[in-house]
Specification:
The protein is an alpha+beta fold. The protein has one domain. It has two helices and four strands. The protein has a four-stranded mixed beta sheet, with no helix packed on it. The longest helix has 9 residues, at about 70-75. The chain is elongated. The N and C termini lie far apart (about 60 Å). The mean pLDDT is about 80.
Length: about 90
């Protein structure tokens, strides 16, 4: 590796305020914010959503086809000649 051309790869805490969830990982992202985590000070990146607050992982919300897109697609292509009939 050449010296001086690679970004600083270090431990960083990603913090999701919505779920009050922090996780420590390594990254090259730059930030001026810091946070105390497990007795040490680390650079901190604030994320808007994480696995702790995302509906897919929490199971709190389910996708509902409220606009009828599936039915609209089926109506549109029901007579398409390339479709296989069951």
């Amino acid at each position: 590796m050449q010296e001086g051309i690679h970004p600083d790869y270090r431990e960083v805490v990603f913090y999701d305020h919505a779920a009050d969830f922090k996780f420590l990982t390594r990254s090259t992202v730059r930030t001026d914010q810091t946070i105390e985590h497990n007795g040490q000070t680390y650079p901190m990146i604030t994320v808007p959503i994480s696995s702790a607050s995302h509906p897919f992982f929490t199971g709190k919300n389910m996708f509902v086809d409220s606009t009828g897109q599936v039915e609209k697609f089926q109506r549109r292509f029901k007579n398409w000649k390339g479709a296989k009939k069951a």
